Amino acid sequence: MNSLHQFFFGYFPYICLAVFLVGSLLRFDRDQYTWKTDSSQLLRTGQLRWGSNLFHIGILVIFFGHAVGLLTPPWIYEIFISTADKKLMAISVGGVAGVLGLIGLSLLLHRRLSDPRIRATSKGADILILWLLWAQFALGLATIWGSVQYHLDGAKMAQLSAWAQHIVTLRAGAAELLVDIGWITKAHLVLGMTLFLVFPFSRLVHVWSGFGTLAYLRRPYQLVRSRRLGLGERSDAPR
């Protein structure tokens, strides 16, 4: 194991997580007016609708699939499913979601690069993020071929899960678990961590707002006083 491997899979995850969390907090505190998606929907709607929907379906399935698949200890999921069957499910579901996401991103990239008005209003960071996400989806799909050919027993997936769980629980020796992992998978992991690194400095921060809207489900009704009502009367209206 060389020093570069140790850096990317032993130290780099913590750098990315620290920048992701602290950077997001600082941006929300200092630059709330930049906390938005910068949507170009008013300029051109049709292709955006298809591309955005396909991309969001794909990335949400993959995000939650990775989170559950990598961070769930084996003693929990082996009650319901074997490691090999879990691997097959990850390949099938992740493959479909990956294809949908890649098609969506391709539409979004074509729209942003081919339309002069949208290109003129686009920031360099917007285009960079789309390319990074496209490459990440492509690398993820590329790992499926090797998995189908050589790793259907789920052993490599178990290694990746052990690495992720070592990282989030601050245990030493995480990098050693990935020494024999293929270079495509390693590139997929590094690029995925890099997305967390650039997250606070891009339009991706609007993802936090999406999760934040769930808090509204538990908020109480707001009492609103109508001007037409008397002083002793009230009107209840949802906020």
From TrEMBL:
Whose protein is this, by species?
Answer: Serpentinimonas maccroryi
Q: Which molecular function terms from Gene Ontology are attached? A: electron transfer activity; heme binding; metal ion binding; nitrate reductase (quinone) activity
Residues annotated for heme b 2 binding in this entry? 66
A GO CC annotation recorded here is: plasma membrane
State whether keyword DNA-binding applies. no
Q: Where are the transmembrane segments?
A: 6-26, 54-76, 88-108, 128-148, 195-217
Top EC group: oxidoreductase
> How does it associate, per the subunit comment?
Dimer of heterotrimers each composed of an alpha, a beta and a gamma chain. Alpha and beta are catalytic chains; gamma chains are involved in binding the enzyme complex to the cytoplasmic membrane.
- The molecule here is called nitrate reductase (quinone)
Q: Where in the cell is it found?
A: Cell membrane
Q: Which reaction does it catalyse?
A: nitrate + a quinol = a quinone + nitrite + H2O
The record's annotation in InterPro entries points to: Heme-iron_electron_transfer, NarG-like_domain, NarG-like_sf, Nitrate_red_gam
Where is each NarG-like domain found? 5-227
